[in-house]
Design a protein that fits this description.
By secondary structure, the chain is an alpha+beta fold. The protein has 9 helices and 11 strands.
Length: 358
Amino acid sequence: MVEKDSSQSPEAPERIGGHELVDLIGQGPRGTVHLGKESDDAAPVAVKILTVDPADDPDFAARLKSVTRVSSSYVARTLDAGVEDGRLYVVREHVEGRSLAEAVAADGPLTGDALERVAVGMLTALTAVHLAGFAHRGLTPDNVILTGEGLRVTDIEIGDPAGEIGYRAPEQINGLQYGPYADVFAWAATVTFAATGSAPFGQDAHAVLTGTPEVDGLPEPLRQVVLAGLAKDVSGRPTTYTALLRLLGDANAPMPAPPIEGVPVPPEPPALATLVDNAPDGQPPVLPLSVEPADPTQQVPTTPDAQVPPGPDPIHPGALPPVPMQAGPMGPEPVPPVPMQGGPVEPGPMHQGPMPPV
């Protein structure tokens, strides 16, 4: 077999980002994936050369490079990204295994524990991505890799799943802003594929926007969580963390959950100029307040004579125990410090440093 001269192909340069491209291991609408090595004794990595023109989005490479801070055993870690010779590239961990798409095509849909592990593993990966401040933006069965040690999700923040309409959320199809909630939709669609061999709406954009999903092959409670994830409106979808809690047995996890900060949940408030124009003469405009969506499971009593038991009276004696105070010339004396054994207490994980890996 005659090897191709990669130096003559603009799609596969011999070196990029300090890595020698050893072999072509994948190709798709968004680019080519090569096995790369920084040196002869270095561990192999996956180098993806994207078809995106860097001039169209000058900040794209910087965003991809910042994804290196995502840390999870369910995510193929991004190691580097940049632009070289006019080509945008991403370097990530090389993961040995088959994609979910390949596994279902070869062996058929998943069932039982295998299906549950895939559903939970993807949610764990996406939760780590969201907690780090990113969104996947293009999850499909092709970038979920099944290995002997579990699954790994790849291609974080690379963009829309080219040609994969059935995994795009309605807001993506409509050209609106999207983020973590679109990942929830893509997760639900990918789980449906894993369980049935097909996306819940096929590859029909109109069905995604208006149709009813086909999820009959999914067991409970997975089916109910997937249906919530496929809601047309982002405000009806759970977060990945809430969906994960539901699958792990927390029946009290709220669905839908409160909005994720920075993700638009429904209609934008009216512009300030409109509010000023519509305000009564001499009166200041009333600005809208942000309110979280009501919990649909909360019941409000409607009986006119419903009795509410009285609470404790903090004014009269006996309602709350008095707090003893020792008066001094300037008021209560300060409380002496409590001696600590073993030295000062170090700040906990909620006070410093990055969050631990999910």
